[in-house]
Amino acid sequence: MSTTYMPKANPAARKWYILDAAGKPLGRVAAQAAVLLRGKEKTTFAPHADCGDHVIIINCAKAVLTGKKLQEKYWHHHTGYVGHLRSVRYDTLMRENPCAAMKKAVKGMLPSNTLGRAALTRLRVVEGAEHNHAAQQPTVWEL
């Protein structure tokens, strides 16, 4: 795929958005956050350039998982030691650390390269409704 438009690298032009996860499915909020972090909604999007925005996700504790995912879905991670595969059910994860569940969902929807890692640094996840980024004047993004 050839790109005819070459965007300029201007980090000052990045906007700030707020996504409210209260009562919405975790995956839908994460998918919209990934789109905003990559900059895919912009007309000046190029897949090889970092042109995304900053995203603040609030009310992560009030996000819902549909179906039987709370009881049947697991988060598996390896500690690095032999035989140390750890598994946590999503009802436990959402109760104890809902921000980690949201961040993991967004990370899985970003590319596994330097662009994805850079985009993940622009993600802020908050458990409640209060955040400390009011000085950036973020705008609310409706899902």
Structural write-up:
The longest helix is centred in the N-terminal third of the chain and has 13 residues, at 26-38. The protein starts with 15 loop residues before the first strand and ends with a strand. The chain contains five helices and six strands; from the N terminus they run E-H-E-H-E-E-H-H-H-E-E. The strands form two sheets. A four-stranded parallel β-sheet has the order 5-2-1-6, with helices on one face. Strands 3-4 form a two-stranded antiparallel sheet. It has a domain at 15-65 and 99-140: Ribosomal Protein L13p, Chain: A (Alpha-Beta Complex), CATH 3.90.1180.10. The mean pLDDT is 93. Helix 1 (26-38) packs across helix 4 (98-108) and helix 3 (90-96) packs across helix 4 (98-108). With 143 residues, the chain is α/β, with parallel strands linked by helices.
